[in-house]
Amino acid sequence: MTAPDEIRERAQDEETDESPTAGDPSGETSRALQLHMAGEVSRRGARDLDSVDQRRLDTRGENSSVASRESRPETAVDGGAEGGGDGTGTTPAPVSRRRRRPLRTSLIVVIAIAVAAAAGAATTGVFGGDGSDVANASASTPPRTAKVQRTTLTRTETVDGNLGFGDASTVQAPAAAGPGAGTVTWVPTAGDIVKRGGAVYKVNEQKVPLLYGSVPFYRTMKDGTEGTDVATLEKNLAALGYDGFVVDDAYDASTAAAVREWQEDLGREKTGTVRPSDAVVASGARRIAEVKAVTGAPPSGPVVTWTGTERIVSVALDVQYEDIVAKGAKATVTLPDNTTVNAEVTDVGSPTTPQSGDSQGAAGGSAGQGGSSSKKATLPVELKVDDQKGLGRYQAAAVKISLKAQTRENVLAVPINALVAQRGGGYAVQAVESDGVHAKPVKVGMFADSMVEVSGPGITTGTVVGVPK
């Protein structure tokens, strides 16, 4: 609605509301409000113009005077300057009874929004104040702190290794059991475990058993034979439950009697003598890795390959770490699923010598161009894991081995992140004291387990230091 239309509508309202006696100074009754456009000169009296202007202000502004008039009795009239009179005491036209919608609620909302915006600006520092001071104060304090502690640091070296059953060895059929000695009639399956007295393979349906020991049978043993192989035989016979003889290194009649009893249980001819082909000697129970012999063939050459029954960890250790491994040394093994088990070094081999070149390269190339190997010398190391269940279902896997390399006892240490590099070299720590934060130079020692050994003036147990992000 435009301004003239608005004035016209309100004029009609006034015409309806005004008293019949109200009018111009001449006493004539006013029936309509004459519309005056811009530039025209009103012929009405000054009082009428003032009255129209006042009503226009009342409608558009809805200020406090409207609320004041609405609170008065219906018989109340405007007077003086507020009523638009000329000051001569003439009674002005009555105020219209039509109530207009107040804007008090809108004004309150606008004022509240302005107050909230001002408060937010003050909080965020738009208008200055304490915000920057707080930020500066917090920036001067380390985000985290830690205390200097006295402890024992152990440096470890982590190397790659392999979990498995160790190197496989080959079981050869004895030369005496060559062609014409029979036929292989049974072989085990890969993964089978063979224990003392169990069959390694069968020849002519007769078992060739496993016996424990360190010296293989290399000759025919009979009454009157002496030696370590005799001792091995008698120890195994006793372990299998045969008796009536003295376990020593002498083969006598009582030993022969026990042997005949053993041969009968194996389904063999009871000769009382033992040939090299009658048994296979190994250090303990074995796990079949691969079967080489074929049933129906003569018992000659490789029969099976086997390993130990327990999983071990093998490492080709770089020779630079040779000084940190020895039999009995403790280590920690981390499996592919990040679980860990304890291990112990059981064997340390001799360093390998890297190849200077291969024969094919040397033969086919000129001097200096032979296929020299870039492999480094390594040290073979084996570790035993007592907690076999802790290894889970892993049969073979790549693992990480942590070996203890160095230990420093009773030293002062802080988190590595507490070190602050100084200009010109060296390190310092931020000592947090009652009078502020001070940079104190320190001498660093061994690094281990995210900690570092430190020493220097003013660095004692319990000193609080900053740990920057």
Strand order of the largest sheet: 2-11-14-13-12-15
Tally of individual helices: 8
Secondary-structure element order, N to C = HHHHHEEEEEEEHHEEEEEEHEEEEEEE
Kindly report the average pLDDT value. Answer: 75
CATH class of the largest domain: Mainly Alpha
Q: List the quaternary state of the chains.
A: single chain
Strand-pairing-aware structural class: alpha+beta
**Structure summary, number of beta strands:** 20
Global shape: elongated
Number of domains: 4
Features:
469 residues; alpha+beta; conserved putative lor/sdh protein from methanococcus maripaludis s2 fold; Muramoyl-pentapeptide Carboxypeptidase, domain 1; 4 domains; 6-stranded antiparallel barrel; 21% helix; disordered N terminus
Notes on the protein architecture:
Residues 1-100, 342-380 are annotated as: Disordered. Residues 362-371 have a biased composition (Gly residues). Keywords: Membrane, Transmembrane, Transmembrane helix. Residues 227-273 form the Peptidoglycan binding-like domain. The chain folds into 4 domains: 3-102, no CATH class; 145-152 and 407-466, conserved putative lor/sdh protein from methanococcus maripaludis s2 fold (Beta Barrel); 171-308, PGBD-like superfamily/PGBD (Muramoyl-pentapeptide Carboxypeptidase, domain 1, Orthogonal Bundle); 312-403, Elongation Factor Tu (Ef-tu), domain 3, CATH 2.40.30. Mean pLDDT is 75; it is low at 1-53, 57-103, 114-139 and 356-373. Helix content is 21%, strand content 29%. Strand 6 (199-203) and strand 7 form a beta hairpin. By secondary structure, it is an alpha+beta fold.
